[in-house]
Request: fold
Amino acid sequence: MTGIDQAAWMRRAIDDARLALTTGDVPVAAIVLDADGRVIGTGRNEREARQDPTAHAELIALRQAAETTGDWHLTDATLVVTLEPCVMCAGGILSARVPTVVFGAWDDKAGAAGSVYDVLRDRRLNHRVEVYGGVEADACAALLEEFFEQRR
Reply:
């Protein structure tokens, strides 16, 4: 188990995710914490804002964390994200050597941390991640459901 208050950090990520609504982006946010529980990176979905298909919350947060630390090896970090990472984001997490991921809502269509795929814990890869899913899942899912209902 991580030494952080997972629910408290997830609630902060949910607040950050709401900011994505201002640009019409899917409300997902990520926070990267160092070993001491300090924020070293944050991100929210910005695909619409940037017109960039790779501008997912996790990747933006990982880039910021690498810049903050001056090292792409985030071997002591924890990534907190409101939605289960997709395959692309799982690849970024593995590449950065993040040891722990905490996520909120499960993604039954594109999740890569245990629902559709389990890329983060695939024994065939050179790095495996400790995954804690479903943290504040109802609140995370409600934000996403509200967003998609309004778009219909």
Q: What stands out?
A: The chain has a mean pLDDT of 96. Strands lie at 29-33, 39-44, 78-83, 100-105, 130-132.
